[in-house]
Inverse folding.
């Protein structure tokens, strides 16, 4: 998961890393500061535009954001637990490892899914070669 600041840098249309010598500029903020509230020392910063238009792009970040607004800062472990609790727990059909996903049709953990994809590719290539010979 991205940090909130990194997410804003990447996704928020109002954010500029620097403008008129103001770092972390936000075109929604008022003079003289014009700084994105999430880059200031303000306690519990809130930006309507961000919450409505930017945050919904990342469901994990969104749930962490609102939980922290409500309960204060969370540790790394608490964040991970929170994210996992929103997801479906699945046991990988290949290696038996437990993993978490948003998609209930997913059968394999990421590692196994990659291996299986590679094996299928190889089979396809071999069949194709046999066909030619
Ligand atoms: Zn697996």
């Amino acid at each position: 998961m991205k940090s909130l600041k990194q997410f804003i840098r990447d996704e928020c249309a109002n954010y500029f890393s620097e403008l008129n010598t103001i770092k972390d500029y936000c075109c929604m903020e008022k003079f003289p500061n014009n700084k994105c509230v999430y880059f200031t020392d303000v306690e519990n910063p809130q930006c309507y535009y961000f919450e409505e238009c930017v945050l919904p792009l990342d469901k994990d970040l969104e749930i962490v954001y609102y939980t922290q607004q409500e309960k204060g800062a969370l540790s790394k472990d608490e964040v991970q637990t929170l994210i996992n609790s929103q997801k479906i727990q699945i046991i990988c059909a290949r290696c038996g490892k437990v993993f978490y996903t948003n998609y209930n049709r997913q059968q394999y953990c990421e590692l196994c899914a990659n291996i299986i994809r590679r094996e299928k590719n190889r089979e396809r290539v071999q069949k194709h070669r046999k066909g030619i010979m």
